[in-house]
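My current task is to audit a protein record that another person submitted. Alongside the sequence sits a line of tokens, each denoting a local backbone shape. Where you disagree with what is written, explain briefly why. This is what I was given:
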Amino acid sequence: MIIRQYTIAMAFSMFEYYIEVAFLPELKAQWWITNVGLLMVVTGEAIRKAAILTAGSAFTHIIRVDHDDHHDLIIRGIYR
């Protein structure tokens, strides 16, 4: 569910956030904006995880342009 590249990207985003808080606190002065952004990130992550869990082994990051006979269209859960 969580691959190495995704973990690295998340680590860098956390690092960026803490650098901004430490060196440019005025960017975080309006905490309601930060909290709305955090809510959006958490919501997006929840949707992503629900999609991965719903699709199961059918989930892949590979973009397909042709239909393969062994692929199934998932129409339950988050894909409903």
